[in-house]
Design goal:
The chain has about 525 residues and is of the alpha+beta class. About 35% of the residues lie in helices and about 20% in strands. The structure holds flavin-adenine dinucleotide (FAD), D-malate (MLT) and zinc ion (ZN).
């Protein structure tokens, strides 16, 4: 029967109304009484606080309040460093009760301001949760605490001849939990796919302290037959800590390739990148494991700041951009032969796609060539303050996007040593992911206003994504509409409301709620 009451309920469930009914109470700041409670859960040395009784100077927690780029600054008074999932659960139960905002923090290498508070939320740093729980050398399933450093995990499985399915420049500091939370891409995505495929299961502490143990190590799981159940782990991959705290990760690690080679190619024109990619795929097929793009400015910057060994002057003369290509296969000689044939065919062509190619001849040279690409992030941070836009656009438009942005800044009178020093581009060609970096002398409202929404509109004009791999964090929460439909954003808000009804998980990140 149709009654006024059912009508009202239907209205509340409609998206618009739902938004209207989610106004929340403000979050609470951490107090000395909260610290006294945390002291019942954690040992004293796992609580860092400027509040009594420890009353540390704020300099002691500065590293947790500031992000890797020095762009985002929180004002947390308290950092907790639990060692067990149970402790995380107890902390969350209390924070849920008290409505204290919580920022999960891994290695704090994120590039979108997601890992530091927007105000004075509590920081829950996972660094003390760093044990490998199990490794099966037959299946390659690795189960580890979320706070394990990516590089340590690589070292742990190396003697078993396995590698992590992802690799990134921040490997020495970033944690597997942070990688999963950001759905990090990196340098091996072309070969091993995204974490949505390689993560087998997760252990997550929900905002109210409930532990969701989904740490399976099996590859096929259709729980909920006859139709598949909801694959809950996928919700937390890329959620950037807004739905819960990842405390354990089960991940499929591939067997280590028996041979790896890399080669850097200097190209006379950007237009050659796409045909080169096609040719490389054709010649190298299954052994092609990375195809990375570096524009001339990015290359010069890496060299300037000592990242890797520069190519000879004559080798780079006339080069507009570079490609770093890696192969991972079963037999070195076989792979080298394929690479040499590729090189010959590129050089012998009537209108050669490349000016030159340098093939690494030793493990040191291999590492040095990779450093030229991986080290760009560090070189940029040494040069100045970076506005980093991590975007997906059609490959053919990479150069246009960089040039158009540079031109826009020039027209706005901002392209000079005291404002914007350089506009550079590099990225993962195989994934259609361009890193557009604007290197400035300082972060200023004037530069930011010139760049946003300009860059987002430019990306939207190519039907691209404003966040290819780094996430939305605090930087792009307001701009999510450029890449997601209203329906999708509304559904995300509903999921957030369902899992985090009090809005305590990483507030102000991903979604503006
Ligand atoms: P943090 O920076 O601490 O956190 C990142 C986000 O995840 C935050 O929103 C945080 O709240 C959340 N989070 C962290 N841990 C957890 C957890 N256990 N549970 C729930 N939420 C959590 N990214 C790429 O995708 N590809 C690259 O190639 C790449 N290269 C990089 C190179 C350098 C030099 C640097 C500095 C960064 C790079 N990044 C790259 C960006 C960054 O996303 C990754 O470094 C990494 O995935 C972040 O891991 P982290 O442990 O440092 O997480
Ligand atoms: C990279 O590909 O080097 C990383 O995503 C970091 C960056 O964008 O600088
Ligand atoms: Zn990247």
């Amino acid at each position: 029967m149709w009654t006024a009451r059912t009508a009202a309920r239907r209205l509340v469930l409609s998206p618009r109304r739902w938004q209207h009914t989610t106004s929340r109470q403000p979050l609470s700041s951490v107090t000395p009484e909260d610290i006294a409670h945390f002291a019942k859960i954690l040992p004293r040395n796992a609580i860092l606080s400027t509040l009594p009784p420890s009353a540390l100077p704020s300099s002691e927690i500065e590293q947790y309040n500031n992000d890797w780029m020095g762009k985002y600054h929180g004002s947390a008074t308290t950092v907790l460093r639990p060692q067990t999932t149970q402790q995380v659960s107890e902390i969350m139960k209390w924070c849920y009760e008290r409505r204290i905002g919580v920022v999960p923090q891994g290695g704090n290498t994120g590039l979108v301001g997601g890992s530091v508070p927007v105000k004075d939320e509590l920081i829950l740093n996972l660094g003390n949760m760093s044990k490998v729980r199990s490794f099966d050398p037959v299946s390659g399933a690795l189960v580890a605490d979320a706070g394990c450093i990516l590089e340590s995990l690589s070292e742990y499985i190396a003697p078993h001849n396995h590698i992590m399915p992802l690799d990134l420049g921040a490997k020495g500091s970033c944690q597997i939990g942070g990688n999963v939370a950001t759905n990090a891409g990196g340098l091996r995505l072309l070969r091993y796919g995204s974490l949505h495929g390689t993560v087998l299961g997760l252990e997550v502490v929900l905002p109210d302290g409930t532990i969701l143990d989904n740490l399976t190590t099996i590859r096929k799981d259709n729980t909920g037959k006859p139709t598949s159940g909801y694959d809950l782990k996928q919700l937390f991959i890329g959620a950037e800590g807004t739905l819960g705290i990842i405390t354990g990760v089960s991940i499929l690690t591939p067997p280590a390739p028996q041979a790896t080679n890399n080669i850097i190619l200097a190209l006379p024109r950007f237009e050659n990148v796409l045909p080169l990619f096609k040719t490389a795929r054709l010649h190298l097929s299954e052994i092609l494991s990375a195809f990375e793009f570096i524009d001339r400015e990015a290359y010069e910057l890496a060299v300037k700041h000592g990242q890797g060994r520069a190519l000879g002057e004559d080798e780079v003369e006339g080069a507009q951009c570079f490609v770093l290509l890696e192969t991972s296969g079963g037999k070195k000689e076989h792979d080298e032969e394929k690479l040499t044939t590729l090189l010959e065919s590129l050089m012998d062509a009537e209108d050669p796609l490349i000016i030159t190619g340098v093939l690494s001849q030793s493990p040191t040279q291999f590492a040095s060539l990779w450093r030229l690409r991986e080290g760009i992030t560090e070189a940029v941070s040494k040069e100045g303050k970076a506005y980093k836009y991590d975007i997906s656009v059609p490959l053919a438009s990479f150069k246009d996007v960089v040039d158009t942005t540079r031109e826009h800044l020039r027209k706005n009178g901002l392209l000079h040593a005291d404002a914007v020093k350089q506009v550079i581009g590099y990225g993962h060609v195989g994934d259609g992911n361009l890193h557009l970096n604007i290197v400035a002398a300082a972060y200023t409202p004037e530069i930011e206003a010139a760049l946003e929404p300009f860059v987002y509109e430019l990306v939207a004009s190519y039907n691209g994504s404003i966040s290819a791999e780094h996430g939305l964090g605090a930087m792009k929460a307001h701009a999510i509409h450029y890449s997601k439909s209203d329906v999708a954003v509304d559904m995300m808000k509903r999921i957030k409301q369902l899992l985090d009804p009090r809005g305590i998980m990483n507030p102000g990140k991903v979604l503006e709620v």
